């Protein structure tokens, strides 16, 4: 993970990892038979950093979802060079399945039947993944062959964007994330209040 965090995912090879660890690349194959297995292990390391309390520790299920969301974002920001891969990786290891089960479990324990629990799990996942991708890989860093529209043209012709642009800066990411998360959790809480008694 230290190698990927420092040099990026493209630097991860058995040869580079062996050099990092001070061992022969072939010896790593005894633990990870392929690079795909090594990547699964990296995903599990990130998942291990995402914590949320049990119902015994925190009876408020919305607070548990909130804490899980903040923990997910923190893990993404801790490993920005891995996160784009993490975002599309199938969570099919035991740790991955336990993570999915845990988040769905918060919703089920709150009283949601399986169908809405699965929908809200996916909706929350959409928000968290999109937010983390934007913060780690960012719209402003996205590829384009077109020369960007100048700030002068934006100021002269696109006033709404010009007024909003200062608030797209990283110092506003935390408050923007919290705004979106609270809107989402408010919607889930409203749905919960409409469940049959």
Largest sheet features = none
CATH level 1 class label: Mainly Alpha
The helix/strand class is mainly alpha
Overall geometry comes to flat
- pLDDT averaged residue by residue: 95
Radius of gyration: 20 Å
Order of helices and strands: HHHHHHHHHHH
% residues in beta strands: under 5%
CATH architecture: Orthogonal Bundle
Helix content: 55-70%
**Number of helical runs?**
11
| CATH homologous superfamily label | Tetracycline Repressor, domain 2
Number of strands: 0
Number of spatially distinct domains: 1
- Per CATH, what is the topology? Tetracycline Repressor, domain 2
What can you see in these coordinates?
With 197 residues, the chain is mostly helical. The chain has a single domain, classed as Tetracycline Repressor, domain 2. 68% of the residues lie in helices and 0% in strands. The protein is built from eleven helices and no strands. It has helices at 2-7, 14-21, 25-28, 35-49, 61-78, 80-88, 94-109, 114-136, 151-157, 159-164, 173-193.
Task: Please describe the topology of this protein.
Layout: H1 2-7, H2 14-21, H3 25-28, H4 35-49, H5 61-78, H6 80-88, H7 94-109, H8 114-136, H9 151-157, H10 159-164, H11 173-193
Helix pairs in contact: 5-7, 5-8, 5-11, 6-8, 7-8, 8-11
Summarize it.
With 197 residues, the chain is mainly α. Helix content is 68%, strand content 0%.
């Amino acid at each position: 993970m230290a190698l990927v965090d420092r040099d990026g995912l493209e630097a991860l090879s058995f040869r580079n990892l062996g050099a990092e660890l001070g061992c022969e690349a072939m010896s790593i194959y005894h633990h990870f038979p392929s690079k795909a297995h090594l990547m699964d292990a990296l995903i599990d390391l990130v998942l291990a950093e995402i914590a949320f309390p049990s119902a015994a520790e925190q009876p408020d299920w919305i607070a548990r979802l909130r804490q899980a969301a903040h923990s997910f974002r923190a893990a993404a920001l801790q490993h920005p060079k891995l996160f784009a891969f993490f975002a599309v990786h199938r969570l099919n290891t035991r740790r991955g399945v336990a993570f999915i089960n845990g988040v769905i479990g918060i919703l089920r324990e709150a009283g949601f039947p399986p169908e809405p629990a699965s929908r809200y799990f996916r909706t929350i996942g959409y928000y968290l993944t999109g937010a983390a991708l934007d913060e780690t890989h960012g719209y402003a860093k996205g590829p384009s062959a077109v020369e960007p529209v100048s700030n002068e043209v934006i100021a002269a012709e696109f006033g709404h964007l010009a007024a909003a642009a200062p608030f797209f800066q990283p110092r506003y990411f935390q408050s923007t994330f919290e705004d979106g998360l609270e809107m989402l959790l408010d919607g889930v809480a409203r749905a919960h209040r409409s469940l049959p008694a």
